[in-house]
Amino acid sequence: MFNFSNEQIERYSRHIILKEVGGMGQTRLLESKVLLIGAGGLGSPVGVYLAAAGVGTLGIIDDDVVDLSNLQRQILHGTSDIGIPKTKSAAATITEMNPDVKVIPYNERITSENAFQILEQYDLIVDGCDNLPTRYLLNDASVMLGKPIVHGSIFQFEGQVTVFYPGKGPCYRCLYPEPPPPGMVPSCQEAGVFGVLPGIIGTIQAVEAIKTLLNIGEPLIGNLLLFNALTMDFKRLKLRQDETCPMCGEHPTIHELIDYEEFCQVRW
Amino acid sequence: MAVTVRIPTPLRRLTQNLAEVETEGANIESIIENLEANYPGMKERLCDDGGNIRRFVNIYLNDEDIRFLDGKATPVTDGAEISIIPAIAGGKN
Fold it and tell me: pTM for the whole thing?
């Protein structure tokens, strides 16, 4: 019925006996293609868990090399990886964890020029990037291509997760029509980040990615999950689709990818 | 109406690092004015020169975005929880 090897039946047995996954769901995961934007704090737990779960193809896009200061939280990488590209280190960790997974490394940044060509090859995108221009770029490209994005972001001790699914719920521009001015949103590099926080937020992103791929449960479409590690507080807010949204509203005004660096330099 | 306002990390330097503050007001607009009175600088962070809420800041009454209620005129009830949710970018580094 299914084309599993004996080793795969054993490896995925705890999934296969779950009625929500089963042989059908596991086959679907093995046939799925997920693109990770960033192999850092969020991308690490997402990559590890999606690989362990048997997601068959993982694209990983990141143009950084591993730095000693990454290792407080970026569990795809180890001390001996310092100085090598994160995509290479990530591929080695993932292949060791599960040789069923085909890793496609992109040692570059996602840009308006390469976004369609890369994104169109994947079923789902996991956004674990570190800047707003990339988040708007991914949003616009994914709405145009109809691809779901599992969004995660972190700041110090707090994180946010949601699923943007074109046609099924709001997009990032419904939530934030305009970006904040530069300097209003300090980066983790400037402000610090609690090392375990991306572990929690990224792991929730992995849950949402698998649920979305398998079409089970209730992914966080139209809901923003907020987490505070200091108070161990989870809160859910409703996200509404904005009918005036320039991207996915009734009369969209954005029909092509723009210069997102420029877009995010709004005067304040 | 006494309400609790959840302050996001980037704005806590205006609230002596408090994550939650109590304030009063009949609607969102008066709550913002009262926040400004107690924590100067808050209004400028939340509203533009025309007094409109900035488009990169979302304000929630309990779990609903006030943009989809009645905006700044949205009435609040005693004990309501107001959350200020700015865009955050971090993830990779």
Answer: 0.94
